[in-house]
Give the backbone structure.
Amino acid sequence: MEELADDIRRITFRLPLGIDHVHCYLLRSATGGWTLVDTGLGTRDADARWRPVLEALDAPIERIVVTHMHPDHVGGSGDVAALTGAPVYESPEDHAQCVAVWGPDRDPSVIVEHWTGHGLPADQVAAVVEDARSLAAAVRYAPDPEPLAAGDELDGWRVEHLPGHADGHLVLVRQGVLIAGDTILAGITPAIGVYPGARPDPLGDYLETLDRIERLDLRLAHTGHGPTIEDPAARAREIRSHHVERLAATEGTLEDAPKSAYDVSLALFPADLSPVLRRFALAESLAHLERLVREGRATPDGLGYRAG
């Protein structure tokens, strides 16, 4: 646990994923307790993970805020709620997707149809299904969270909706400080991908999010991974430039012949990726293709896309 300011502390947990850690944040509440933002992965022994954190605090956790439904952010929310008795706050849109993707009634055929429909080879399907199953086991979400929406306030922190990385992604802003989740990161760019049951143009959403980050007059962004960003507006401009370049590269892959999103991912991400990382590459390639379609620079063609 690190003290970032008198009223902000950061907890870092290791992750067994492509990225090796996640940050959760504690914000001092008006009553002297704490608001916890994000919770890491769920675990079979939540007490062993969280008891040292709770015992190190000088006051109880009074509420839990989930920025978005990805496993490393929402996964432990049910666990911490059970340990502390604190209510969980989450965007209704985000919670609905969380249940659809990670809940007991999820349908694996939905993700299979999505990925194979965009060119994923049949021999990689089993790995995708197994990855989804193992991630779902690490998501122990709160079943009935309190609704949280843009414009709400929690102890002077204003809630903003900044989609792109996730459809229902919420952040907190106060006095030029952004509790950012995964909306903006240093050193790496947040993953932007098209997924089944989600919004169709996440990159378009994210480019608008970057515009809004520039307009928020921020001096610090405490992020879900990596170091604090000391000039969020400048970092937003860097990330936008990255996506402008990636859009041009994606458009270039279509010059010779129509291609599936999978084939485009092989051109953009030529490394020998694991099936899980190839899925992320495919999702991101698809997001760029869909943005090109909306800009009139690409056209759907059967199971793929063609230029113009």
About this structure: Residues 141 and 294 are 35 Å apart (CA to CA). The chain has one domain: 2-252.
